[in-house]
Design brief:
By secondary structure, this protein is of the alpha/beta class. It contains twelve helices and nine strands. The longest helix is centred in the middle third of the chain and has 18 residues. It is globular, with a radius of gyration of 20 Å.
C-alpha cells in the first residue's frame, strides 16, 4: 500500500492536562480513565457534541476522562454542507478547539456514510456526474480544512447493507459504480497525506457472516489501491451473554492479519429499565469488550458512543425499552459500575505492560471496592 506508507502513526501517549493527578495503576481509583489508558497505550474515547460544550460539568468530565473524541454528528455531511455551496464548520471547529485545548485527539467522523438515510437529499438528487463531483469536493474541502489537525478520518462509514452482508444499495453504489470507495480513500489521502484513513462498520458482532464479508470488502479495496489504515468496529449491543472476548479478539485479528490497525469505535451497552442486575451485567459486557481490544496488539482504541445516560441515541432508536442507560456515566454524570470495571481492566493491562505482577487480564468481573 504505497499510498498509505506515509501515514503517520497517531501518537499513543497524549499530553496530560496540566494538574492531572498522578496515576498508580495498582490503585485504579487514583487514576482517571485517560491517565491509566495512556499507561496501557490505549486511546480511550467518547463522542463530543458542540452544543453541550457550554456545560462545565459535561466539558470537565470529557476532558478529565478521555483522550480521544469523535464528533457524534458535527462533521457529518448533512451537518457541514446542508445545501450545495453552503458550508457550516462552526460546530466541528468548536469540537476541535476543545480537543486541542485539552490535549485530546479528534477523529473525523465521517466523510461518506454509505446509507441513503443519512445522505443529504440534495446530494442524492444530483445524478452520477454531479454526485461524483460533490463527493470529491466534500472530501477535499473537509479534510483539507483540517489538514494536520485532525489526524484520522472515517472515510467510509457502514458500507455493507443493513442487516446483511452484501454491499449497501446506497446512491453511491447505484450511481458511481464499484470503484467509488477506492476513489474516496485516494481523495482523502491526497487532501491530507499524513492522516490515518479508516473504514467503519457495525453489526460484525451479531449479523451472521458480516465479519467475513467486511474482510473480503477491505481486502479487495486495498488490492485496488485504497490507502486504508484501519478498520473500526462498532459494538452497539453487547450483553452479558455475548459477544465473548475471544470472539471479538478473533474478529479484530482478521483485520490485523491484513496489516490493518483496528479499534472499537462505537461501544454502548443498553440495559433493561427495571433490571436491578442490569448495571452489573453491563459492567461485565464492557469489561469483555475492552479486554478484547487490549489483547489484540493492533487494536488501538475503545470509544464509547456517548458520555452519559442522559444523552444516548439508543433512547431514540425505538428498539429497546427506555431509558436504555447504556454508557459509563449516569444521567447525573456519576460513574457507574461499568466505569470501574473498564478502569480496572485498563489498569491491569498497564501493570502487565510495565512488567509488574498483576492479575491476569480477566475483565468481566467487578473490581473489589
Ligand atoms: O438536529 C436536530 C435538532 O435540531 C432537534 O432538536 C433534535 C430533536 O430530536 O433532532 C436533531 O437531530 C438529530 C441528531 O441526531 C442530533 O440529536 C437527528 O434527528 C438524529 O437523526 C441524529 O441521530 C444521530 C445518528 O447517528 C444519525 O446521524 C445520532 O445522534 C448519532 O448517535 C448516530 O451515530 C451513528 C454513527 O454516526 C454511525 N454509526 C451508528 C451510530 C448510531 O446510529
Amino acid at each position: 500500500m504505497a499510498a498509505c506508507a506515509g501515514a503517520m502513526a497517531w501518537p499513543l501517549l497524549l499530553p496530560e492536562p496540566a494538574g492531572a493527578a498522578t496515576c498508580a495503576p495498582a490503585e485504579p481509583a487514583s487514576c482517571s480513565l485517560r491517565s491509566v489508558a495512556d499507561l496501557a497505550k490505549l486511546r480511550i474515547g467518547s463522542t463530543i457534541t458542540s452544543s453541550r460544550l457550554g456545560d462545565p460539568a459535561y466539558a470537565g468530565l470529557l476532558s478529565e476522562q478521555f483522550s480521544s473524541l469523535t464528533p457524534e454528528n458535527d462533521l457529518k455531511w448533512y451537518s457541514v454542507q446542508p445545501a450545495p455551496g453552503e458550508w457550516h464548520f462552526e460546530a466541528a471547529d468548536a469540537d476541535l478547539a476543545f480537543a486541542e485545548a485539552h490535549g485530546m485527539a479528534l477523529k473525523g467522523h465521517n466523510l461518506i456514510w454509505d446509507q441513503d438515510a443519512y445522505t443529504p437529499a440534495w446530494v442524492r438528487a444530483l445524478g452520477p456526474s454531479g454526485l461524483r463531483s460533490a463527493v470529491d469536493e466534500e472530501i477535499r474541502t473537509v479534510v483539507g480544512r483540517y489538514r494536520g489537525r485532525i489526524p484520522r478520518w472515517d472515510v467510509v462509514n457502514e458500507p455493507l447493507a443493513n442487516l446483511g452482508t452484501a454491499r449497501s444499495d446506497s446512491v453511491f453504489e447505484r450511481e458511481l459504480g464499484k470503484g467509488w470507495m477506492v476513489r474516496a480513500f485516494v481523495a482523502a489521502h491526497e487532501a491530507d497525506p499524513a492522516a490515518e484513513l479508516w473504514l467503519n462498520e457495525y453489526g460484525t458482532d451479531w449479523v451472521p457472516g458480516k465479519t467475513a464479508a467486511l474482510v473480503r470488502l477491505v481486502r479487495g479495496l486495498r488490492e485496488q489501491g485504497a490507502p486504508i489504515y484501519g478498520v473500526g468496529l462498532e459494538l452497539h449491543r453487547p450483553t452479558d451473554r455475548g459477544p465473548r472476548s475471544d470472539d471479538v479478539v478473533a474478529a479484530l485479528s482478521r483485520f490485523a492479519r491484513l496489516g490493518l490497525r483496528t479499534a472499537i469505535t462505537e461501544l454502548d451497552v443498553p440495559i433493561a429499565p427495571g433490571d436491578p442486575a442490569g448495571p452489573r451485567r453491563q459492567a461485565k459486557a464492557y469489561g469483555r469488550v475492552v479486554q478484547a481490544c487490549l489483547e489484540q496488539p493492533r487494536c488501538r482504541e475503545v470509544t464509547v458512543w456517548g458520555l452519559d445516560d442522559g444523552h444516548s441515541w439508543l433512547d431514540h432508536l425505538g428498539l429497546f425499552p427506555t431509558p436504555t442507560r447504556p454508557l459509563l456515566f449516569d444521567a447525573d454524570l456519576q460513574p457507574k459500575p461499568a466505569f470501574a470495571v473498564v478502569r480496572a481492566c485498563i489498569a491491569r493491562a498497564a501493570l502487565l505492560r510495565a512488567g509488574a505482577p498483576a492479575a491476569p487480564l480477566s475483565c468481566a468481573s467487578l473490581p473489589r471496592p
